[in-house]
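Researcher: Before we compare anything, I want clean individual predictions. No alignment, no superposition, just each chain on its own. First chain goes here; please echo the sequence and then give the structure tokens.
Model: Echoing the first chain and its structure:
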Amino acid sequence: MKKLGNKIEAIPIVRKLNSHRWMSLVWWSILVMILPYIFSICRVPVVWREAILFFIINSIIAYHLGNLIIKLNLSKWWIFLLPVLFCLAMLPHFALYNLMFDLIYLIIEAFGLMNKNIYR
């Protein structure tokens, strides 16, 4: 697996993209877009997909992205990247009630932006 990662990082365009400090946010957001389709291909039941993927995994990623925005000193507008890309991923194939997770991920990212200063 490590060899595959090294091969991907050796591609010139990926190397150039990874030179930007904001690229980790984009990679995490793309992962959030791809995971529902991977779970569908693996025939994970909808209930488990909602519970494990949408509630647990994506929420952890959203909180992590909120922390990354603070660590990398990026503009607060980056908080909208994950919800917008998730919305675009949900529209073609999944039920429209999954769009409520955009708001949930936005709120969780805001908690990540607070960076343990919730009461201030």
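Researcher: Okay. Second chain, same rules.
Model: Second chain and its structure:
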Amino acid sequence: METIEGVATYPILSLLIFFIFFVGLGFWVLTYKKEKINEMSQMPLNDN
């Protein structure tokens, strides 16, 4: 694998994509409205 030109960029790119995705997901979860979370958590308990 060391003979392939630019092969070192793939692990760095993968780490950046992974990091950006999970930081974005964490930001989305922390800023999501609490009322909507409570509403969705009660959905399995509703008879409708």
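Researcher: What stands out in the second chain?
Model: The chain has two helices and no strands. Additionally, The two ends are 57 Å apart (CA to CA).
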